[in-house]
Amino acid sequence: MKNASQCLMVQSVLDSIRFFDQQGWCPATSSNFSWLDPQTPEQFWMSASGLKKSDMSSADFLNLPIDDTERQVWTENNPARLPSAETDLHACVYQVVPTAQAVYHTHSVNSTVLSRLAESTGFMTVENFEILKGFTGVSSHQGPIHIPVLSNSQDMKHLAGQLRPILLEKQPLWGFMLSGHGLYAWGNSPEQARQHVEVFEFLFDATIRLLPHGHFNHPG
Ligand SMILES: [Zn+2]
């Protein structure tokens, strides 16, 4: 990290990672986190691969180009430093969503279960929850809000190709899910990205509890 503002930013990100880990949303070495470099907005800081989240420090983030071709060159020149395998999806969000300053990816049980249930329709609908007002720009509990759900894949370039048109079409959008995998959420600051993860996870928890009563993906 170069300066005091970047140190404050990484501290905020680390605080959120520890909080998410304490909630059980980052099991094993899963989940990954990034934020846009405030001094060099064509670059972002990405968590390294395969780390236990409770042990992470500021040294565990790599400064990468957002541009896919430049990032490929960086990776070839730095074979010993592996960013998260899902880095391409973070870069895709920064490339397409102009307000995204931080992207957080978690693996909660609830997001894993609900994304499986919603995969066939391609989205999960939430409505009539007061917590919806926790999303930036939302002033009503009513909704409905449709959360995109993509089929999971280990081919990140393929997934990024599927994600790009969804991000371009659906604005504002605060996150999406990968089926059987987890949640991606972002915000215009690390703090707002954390808030959006918390809102999504609250919605997932409430939706799971309503499942026995037949409330799921009802159109608004
Ligand atoms: Zn993941």
Please describe the topology of this protein.
Layout: H1 4-22, E1 32-36, E2 43-47, E3 61-65, H2 68-77, H3 87-96, E4 102-106, H4 109-118, E5 123-126, E6 145-150, H5 156-169, E7 175-178, E8 182-187, H6 190-210
Parallel strand pairs: 6-7
Antiparallel strand pairs: 1-2, 1-4, 2-3, 4-8, 5-6, 7-8
The protein binds zinc ion.
The site of zinc ion (ZN) has 6 residues, from loops.
Description:
- With 220 residues, this protein is α+β, with helices and mostly antiparallel strands.
- It has helices at 4-22, 68-77, 87-96, 109-118, 156-169, 190-210, and strands at residues 32-36, 43-47, 61-65, 102-106, 123-126, 145-150, 175-178, 182-187.
- An eight-stranded mixed beta sheet has the order 3-2-1-4-8-7-6-5, sandwiched between helices.
- The protein is globular, with a radius of gyration of 17 Å.
- The N and C termini lie far apart (46 Å).
- The chain binds zinc ion (ZN).
- Zinc ion is lined by residues 30, 86, 105, 107, 181-182.
